[in-house]
Design goal:
Blueprint (H helix, E strand, L loop, with lengths): L17 H21 L4 E4 L5 H12 L6 E5 L7 E5 L5 E5 L4 E5 L4 E9 L4 E9 L2 H19 L2 E8 L2 E8 L13 H15 L4 H5 L6 E6 L6 H9 L6 E5 L6 H14 L2 E6 L6 H12 L7 E7 L7 H4 L7 E4 L5 H11 L7 H10 L5 H17 L5 H17 L5 H7 L2
Parallel strand pairs: 8-11, 10-13, 10-14, 11-12, 12-13
Antiparallel strand pairs: 1-7, 2-5, 3-4, 5-6, 6-7, 8-9
Helix pairs in contact: 2-3, 7-8, 10-11, 10-12, 12-13
């Protein structure tokens, strides 16, 4: 399409609207920098609301010192152009800021700028993309999305809804959890992993062969501490696909829902995990249901919802086909699972076979997380006192759990025990 003449042109004359002058001055300086540094003028494009993926990919490239992206200049001289980062290894490092720098991708003749805009009524940031032509821009976007998908497969991408919008960060999978270490009843574990494998193996060939829509949704529910998170981590470590972990908060809105589904659709096939799905705010539920029902919004997405309180879930989520196909209860471990877990933890270094079996029986009704605490308490008691009082350890744990659930922290007897 031929480029048309603009009705209003930017000049240094400040008689034009002051807000436009302030805005256009910054943009014009970027255009001048680009022409000066690369020797040609690039066209300005509106970045749109779904451009976050491009900036996330650029952020990864900066972290990895990718030579395909270079900084031509910062925009404002007295606005920071570098950011201090802190790693899980507790090391500090400095990288260029996404904001206030002009980034250029010479391979594509494309530049990207997240620029602070200062006006008298508010300050904000806006994203700009400059490209030689439409074709180079489209090629750039497609390749950046492909790069982002590859990058996301190096860990779990966590989306958190905040009052400033959706915040993203990447978490490395520091410990692979083999499927055999997931403590669930065998038929549930078989069903879930079989569905996962068929979804991601051979590009969903199973779904095409049997004319099944290429999307899947499962809901994991049950008391906390029984392995829902462990199951998700095991799935994440065993599939070659991006994993997005979405944390719903009171700030979840129709806008954040739209942004998240737009992002994950581009990354498909992939897994979207929604933690504590019952906490979806009432005012956002309609938008969420609409996103689940969209014709293409779930294509290629394996959706996993988790909840500790299934009774609080909107019935519309699970009473309509195409939202969640199956619901699995993650129950308290039975005797065989308690025996297996405690044995794997190494509890037999402290107990003979008779006392071990007695402990397994006494811990009936405890969760996996509580069994872990039983192991910790026994190890501490053995380390400092050697004689192990199984009855007292289990009783104290059950009492602590009862008071936590009922929020009964004010009795004099218990205050003396905890030392407050």
């Amino acid at each position: 399409m031929a480029k048309k003449q603009a009705l209003i042109k930017f000049t240094t004359n400040r008689n034009i609207h002051p807000h436009y002058y302030d805005y256009a001055t910054a943009v014009q300086h970027v255009k001048n920098i680009l022409k000066q540094k690369i020797g040609t003028e690039l066209n300005l494009y509106h970045a749109g609301e779904d451009v976050h993926t491009l900036f996330e990919t650029m952020h990864d490239m900066i972290n990895e010192n990718d030579v395909d992206v270079e900084i031509l200049s910062s925009v404002y001289d007295n606005v920071s152009a570098s950011t201090i980062k802190f790693t899980i290894e507790k090391n500090y490092y400095v990288i260029p800021s996404i904001s206030n720098n002009v980034y250029y991708f010479r391979k594509y003749d494309v530049a990207m700028v997240r620029m602070p805009i200062y006006q008298n009524h508010e300050d904000f940031e806006e994203d700009f993309i400059f490209a030689k032509n439409d074709e180079s821009l489209i090629r750039f976007i497609n390749e950046m999305i492909a790069m982002q998908r590859q990058s996301m497969m190096k860990g779990i991408t966590v989306f958190t809804d905040t009052d400033e919008g959706v915040v993203r960060h990447r978490e490395k999978i520091t410990q692979q959890i083999p499927r055999e270490e997931v403590l669930l009843s065998e038929h549930i574990k078989r069903d879930i992993f079989r569905a996962i494998d068929e979804f991601f193996l051979k590009s969903g060939e199973f779904f095409k062969q049997y004319n099944i829509p290429y999307k899947r949704g499962i809901l994991l529910y049950g008391n906390p501490g029984n392995g829902k998170t462990t199951l998700v981590k095991s799935i994440a470590g065993s599939v070659a696909a991006p994993i997005v972990y979405w944390q719903i908060t009171e700030n979840t809105s129709s806008y954040s829902i739209q942004e998240i589904f737009e992002t994950v659709t581009k990354m498909a096939p992939m897994i979207l995990v929604i933690e504590d799905i019952e906490s979806m705010p009432d005012y956002a539920r309609s938008a969420f249901l609409n996103a689940l029902d969209g014709a293409t919004s779930k294509e290629g997405i394996f959706l996993i919802g988790t909840t500790n309180y299934p009774e609080r879930i909107d019935p519309a989520l699970i009473n309509r086909a195409g939202r969640f196909d199956r619901a699995y209860e993650i129950k308290q471990p039975d005797e065989s699972l308690r025996c297996l877990y405690l044995e794997k933890k190494g509890i037999k270094q402290f107990l003979d076979e008779e006392r071990f079996l007695y402990l397994v029986d006494k811990t009936k009704g405890l969760s996996i997380a509580q069994l872990n605490e039983v192991y910790m308490s026994i190890a501490l008691q053995w380390h400092y006192e050697e004689p192990i009082d199984i009855d007292q350890i289990v009783q104290d744990l059950l009492e602590n759990h009862r008071r936590t659930v009922k929020q009964e922290w004010d009795s004099d007897d218990y205050v003396k025990k905890v030392g407050f």
